[in-house]
Design brief:
By secondary structure, the protein is α+β, with helices and mostly antiparallel strands. About 20% of the residues lie in helices and about 20% in strands. It contains three helices and eight strands. A six-stranded antiparallel β-sheet has the order 3-4-8-7-6-5. Strands 1-2 form a two-stranded antiparallel sheet. Strand 3 and strand 4 form a beta hairpin. The two termini are about 15 Å apart.
């Protein structure tokens, strides 16, 4: 997915956020991450498939879907800002490191080119693809929060990516693809609701994992 592989802002948690250990460090369940309304029970189970963990470093206070939506609204119409972080997910201290990044990208039109062969195309939103280390869901948003979007609207590409992954179990590719798609769907739906996108951006209430 062209234009989706980026990231530069600080994430939701991690000791590096303030250059050292966080005073408010704690460990929480998956459903409590990123503001508490971003990860469904199904997505929390999917996080276990992806990370092997059921508990995670608590998100920093400002790294939530609500803040991600606010950033998107503030950037809407600004041609120099078209992407941003929503959250990052880390396994707890003392466990194998894992860095999962959730991002948004504003795009001008629906992608139509064939994705890389490692991706499976799914039947969600305008375009959804999942690989064994990432997934992207593209959906349309018309909202009273977005000035000028009542006509053609805008398009959002939400990505969930395992940062700096070098390899993954080849015998678990389908399960990983489904897990990444489930997490990406949960964040996309939460983002669409937070932005008040018309008809939740056309996203289904539950993830659809059947190949398109």
């Amino acid at each position: 997915m062209a234009g989706s592989l980026f990231l530069g802002a600080t994430g939701c948690g991690g000791d590096e956020d303030k250059g050292g250990p966080r005073e408010d460090y704690k460990v929480v369940a998956g459903t409590q991450l990123c503001g508490g309304n971003a990860i469904s029970a199904d997505a929390a189970k999917a996080l276990k498939v992806i990370t092997g963990a059921t508990r995670f470093e608590a998100s920093g206070k400002r790294y939530t879907v609500a803040q991600g939506a606010t950033d998107f609204v503030e950037a809407f119409g600004n041609l120099t800002v078209y992407r941003g972080d929503i959250c990052r997910i880390y396994t707890p201290r003392g466990t194998p490191d894992f860095d999962l990044r959730v991002t948004w990208t504003r795009i001008d039109e629906v992608a139509t080119s064939a994705p890389d062969p490692k991706f499976t195309v799914l039947k969600m939103g305008e375009r959804s693809v999942a690989a064994a280390d990432k997934a992207y869901i593209q959906f349309a948003c018309r909202s009273d929060k977005l000035a000028g979007s009542s006509g053609a609207g805008t398009h959002i590409d939400l990505g969930v990516q395992h940062w700096a992954v070098s390899e993954y179990p080849e015998d678990n590719v389908k399960a990983l693809k489904n897990a990444y798609a489930t997490v990406a769907h949960s964040f996309s739906l939460a983002m669409a609701k937070e932005l008040r996108c018309e008809k939740n951006g056309g996203l289904p209430a539950k993830p659809v994992l059947d190949p398109a």
